[in-house]
Amino acid sequence: MDHQGEKSDSKRDLCTLARGIVDSNLYMTLATADETGCPWASPVWYAAEGYARFYWVSSPEAKHSRNLALRPQLSIVIFDSRAPVGTGQAVYVSAVAEELAGEDLERGVGVFSRASVAGGLSAWGLEEVRAPAPYRLYRATANGHWVLDPDASPNRRAAVRL
């Protein structure tokens, strides 16, 4: 195989790796910032729609929710924290988040509810994510994905198109 073919196979392998990480994990960590730029990280249970949209339910009073109301840009990392040292991999995501309303809320609660039921949990309905309920449904839309490329050095981050 020529050198170009090897690079293509390597990229394909990294994409497969990234999809596997998103598909096999339950939690993602949201990295948000407040109005002064002070960072905050929060793990949340998520439902993915493909690899570009990620949904979660949170209180609008939670620090990460208040941060996103001010600054919708965020970073996400999805990883298995039980991986042995030196073997862990992660998907890094750059995204824009929003609290859902209207038709987006109806569609999103369907995605979230299906994932919840598939995971052995209860179904979710609109009444559980609209005021006066204590929770809201959020969606992050990815604008970039990365994984660590073990063959690259010194910057091991490799962009992948999912």
Can you tell me about this structure?
This protein is an alpha+beta fold. Helices cover 29% and strands 35% of the residues. It is built from three helices and eight strands; from the N terminus they run H-E-E-E-E-H-E-E-H-E-E. It has helices spanning 3-24, 63-70, 102-118, and strands at 27-33, 39-45, 47-49, 53-58, 73-79, 90-99, 136-148, 157-160. Strands 1, 2, 3, 4, 5, 6, 7 and 8 form an eight-stranded antiparallel β-sheet that branches. It is globular and about 50 Å long. It starts with a helix and ends with a strand. The model has no long low-confidence stretch (mean pLDDT 92).
Q: What would you say about this model in short?
A:
The protein has 162 residues and is α+β, with helices and mostly antiparallel strands. Helix content is 29%, strand content 35%.
